[in-house]
Amino acid sequence: MGAPRRSGRVAKSAQPLQECCPPPQALRSATHPESRATMFTGIVQATAGIAAIHDRAGLRTFTLEFPEGFCQDLCLGASVATDGVCLTVTEILSPTRANFDVMLQSLNITTLGSYSQGDRVNVERAAKDGAEIGGHPLSGHVDFTGTLIERREFDNNLVWRIAVPEAFRRYIFAKGYIAIHGASLTVAEVNRQEGWFEIWMIPETRRATVFEDKRAGDVLNIEIERSTQVVVDTVREAVHESLGRLQPVLEALLKEKGLSLDDFVQAPVVPH
Prior knowledge:
By secondary structure, the protein is α+β, with helices and mostly antiparallel strands. It is built from five helices and twelve strands.
């Protein structure tokens, strides 16, 4: 179940302010190799090492060391997903090194604020026009961080159980999409009452990412699938408008049965 999922549509929705990649027209010329709208596929292309960290007022600069060839055609203003966070290239130092400035709020609401020199991160270049979406479309805007609460191995499979804040449980469905540290993965199982979901990873996912080194207690950047969020929010608004004052009564009755209105929302089927 760690195999990448495909396709879907990124829909705009409310999310915390963070290191949002600028509109392409602000930083890119018509000949820029990146796509016109910043989007990632959820297929991790490489892992990069944090070669240096420099702090200054309200900003932290990461110097990332990439594998040979990763930075081909990379230019100032280009977008690189770094453990799922969309960052903008601010300086190119060599064919394998580049700098990225991260603002204070991004450091606070993602895992980037906890990193040290020598740590490794998942990286993906922004998708080019016409590129195959090997995973599912991502914006590089982390919705929340979840804690890895259990790690199990079965033969060649790695299983993670991840805790979810209550406000985001409604957006996670079994067999649905989710991005963890920028990697598109399939949700295997969900328990909304206990507040966790599980994903399974195949050997290739483990090889191509930083996931092999993660242990229980580690914190992970998570981006929910946008079309799922839109459907769930739309249904909840429609229910609220229809039920009016009866909604709290119905929610209380369902809670007595260990249920919630979210249990009756079907995960949207995204075309491949």
